[in-house]
Amino acid sequence: MQKADNKIYLFEQSPIPKAVATLAVPTVLSQLVMVLYNLADTFWVGMLNNAVQNAAVTLAAPVLLAFNAINNLFGVGSSSMMSRALGRKDYETVSRSSAFGFYCSIICGIIFSLLCTVFQNPLLVLLGADETTMQATREYMFWTVNCGAVPAILNVVMAYLVRSEGSAMHASIGTMSGCLLNIVLDPVFILLWGFDMGAGGAGLATFLSNCVACLYFFVLLFIKRGNTFVCIDPKKLSFQKDIVSGVCAVGIPASIQNLLNVTGMTILNNFSSSYGASAVAAIGICQKIYMVPMYISQGISQGVMPLISYTFSSNNIPRMKHAVSFARKAALTIIISVALLFFLFPGFWVELFMKDATIVEYGSHLLRRFCMGLPFLSIDFLAVGVFAALLLLSYTQYAVLTDQVVTLRSELTTLQTENATLSAEYEKVFDMERIQAAVGDTMIRPTGDQVEYIDLSEPDSVVVYGQEDAKTGIPGLLAGLEEIISSLIEYFR
Q1: What Å distances lie between residue 349 and 253, 286, 296, 369, CA to CA?
Q2: Residue 75 and residue 18 in one domain
Q3: What one-character-per-residue DSSP string does 367-411 give?
Q4: Are the CB atoms for 412 and 329 separated by under 8 Å?
Q5: Enclosing domain of residue 223
Q6: How many other β-carbons are positioned within 10 Å of the β-carbon of residue 28?
Q7: Which of 4, 207, 378, 441 could disulfide-link to 297, CB 3.0 to 4.6 Å?
Q8: Which of 387, 409, 431 lies at the terminal end of a domain, its last residue?
Q9: Considering the domain boundaries, does residue 83 fall inside one?
Q10: Residues 16 and 114 grouped into a single domain
Q11: Which positions of the chain have pLDDT values less than 50?
Q12: Relative orientation angle of helices 199-223 and 149-164, to the nearest 10 degrees
């Protein structure tokens, strides 16, 4: 009860800056953790000061980004389905939705891995790899894609499923454990004093870290068995129409956005590959740096969505507008500040990853141009978050109304059946021919003096038999006084 009261206070009464910060800061931090996965590989590979090795990480980035399409399809879709079912206390649907998301993500990860293995050479050419970068890219993708597709996808999907039942802390711990392990293992496998595997070592570190994160979630579900709504029992796997449509209705739009990003990144890498490995490496570094403010904007957008949904559903439009306005100002202030730092000192940020003069020069020009679009990107993410909140709310309301319509139709059918049954029984009871046949000659018609006629044409002609006589004595006196007082009150009214 205390927790529910705190949430109501946060949504309805808490100052808008505090409410937005409470909701957005944890989301921003979780988004930045995901950035560290990408930054870690780029940073440690950059320590080799080898453009080819760094280019390999950049060229493989679209394939890794494609994982997010599957993550959003089954992670976002299943968690949304679970949340709605939990609200209805439909625990069977919760179990089936989580099992559907879990096993479908595994199946899609296996298919993804097999396709990338079978069509590896055409895929590398499509990504923009040439004779110089082909081998390094293949080594990096062997661990991250061929071997690592399933754990990479499952890690994120299970975090979504665990978070949907309110275990945000465990979801963050699982994700952060994998990220921190990746940061620790990267130098061990990449650098000369370690295994000296280059880009392949970065892929191996990423693969092992994702496996450890998945292991954390499996152990968590085992310990919490019986006390968790997340179900990975294969018996609960269901392809019922309502489960599939419910997951896909939310997951597919989110996946399409990621696929568009993959397409854009692939085209950009192909254009840059014609300028050599240094240009590809520079673009990759700038993209990773660019992710920091981009994910901050996305975190603010996702964090403010619950507040927007709640205030809109409660018809508190002024508070909703205030929340959107504050989130816009906060996002723009942060993003413009970061953009100015990147714009004024681009070489400093690029040199954090590589010391090569050519790459630093390319990266400085690219980073300055990337910064010019950051304010617009921030507004774009916020607008998408606002409309997504309202769209999801409308979808939820539509689903509730649909359930109510189905229930009412079922009740109407039941009432119609009962009415037909009662009508048939009534006709049987009051069927005069049946009654006469049953009584035969024993039925005697009443004589004329036994029939009484009541005239109901006048409004006051109905006689109520058995009515008590008019009150007398003190009760009668009190009743008369009461009537007089009522008449006076009515008169002066």
Answers
A1: 34, 9, 18, 14
A2: no
A3: HHHHHHTHHHHHHHHHHHHHHHHHHHHHHHHHHHHHHHHHHHHHH
A4: no
A5: 47-250
A6: 20
A7: 378
A8: 409
A9: yes
A10: no
A11: 1-4, 461-468, 491-493
A12: 40
> Do 281 and 178 share a structural domain?
no
Sign of CA dihedral 116, 121, 122, 125: positive
**Burial of 413 (C-beta count, 10 Å sphere; 0-12/13-18/19+):** exposed
Token match 């100015």: residue?
340
Task: Give the Cβ contact number of residue 398 at 10 Å.
Answer: 10
- Tens digit of each residue's pLDDT (9 = 90 or more) over 273-302: 778 878 888 888 888 888 888 878 877 876
C-alpha–C-alpha distance, residues 33 and 193, integer Å: 27
The CA distances from residue 33 to 8, 178, 255, 284, in Å, are 29, 10, 21, 18
The span from the CA of 110 to the CA of 19, in Å, is: 42
* Within a domain: 421: no
Per-residue pLDDT at 330: 84
Task: Judge if 134 and 106 occupy the same domain.
Answer: yes
Helix, strand or coil, per DSSP, at residue 129: coil
pLDDT in tens, 27-70: 677 677 777 777 777 788 888 878 888 888 888 888 888 887 88
Neighbour count for residue 400 (Cβ, 10 Å): 13
Question: Of 377, 409, 441, which closes a domain?
Answer: 409
| Whole-angstrom distance, CA of residue 333 vs CA of residue 322 | 16
Sign of CA dihedral 154, 155, 158, 160: negative
In a domain, 457, yes or no: no
| Number of domain units in the chain | 2
Same domain, yes or no, for 142 and 246?
yes
Shared domain for 24 and 63, answered yes or no, is: no
Which of 366-371's residues contact partners 24+ apart within 8 Å by CB, and which partners? 366/282, 366/283, 366/286, 367/286, 367/289, 367/290, 367/342, 367/343, 368/342, 368/343, 370/286, 370/290, 370/342, 371/339, 371/340, 371/342, 371/343
Residues 219 and 289 in one domain: no
- Find tokens 């008449």 and name the residue: 487
Say yes or no: 308 and 215 in one domain.
Answer: no
For residues 350 and 431, the answer to whether their CB atoms sit within 8 Å is no
pTM: predicted TM-score of the whole model, two decimal places:
0.65
Closest CA to 257 of 477, 71, 461, 48: 71
**8 falls within a domain:** yes
Burial class, 415, CB count within 10 angstroms (exposed 0-12 / middle 13-18 / buried 19+): exposed
Q: Kindly report the average pLDDT of the chain as a whole number.
A: 77
**Helix pair angle (241-273, 77-87), 10° resolution:** 150
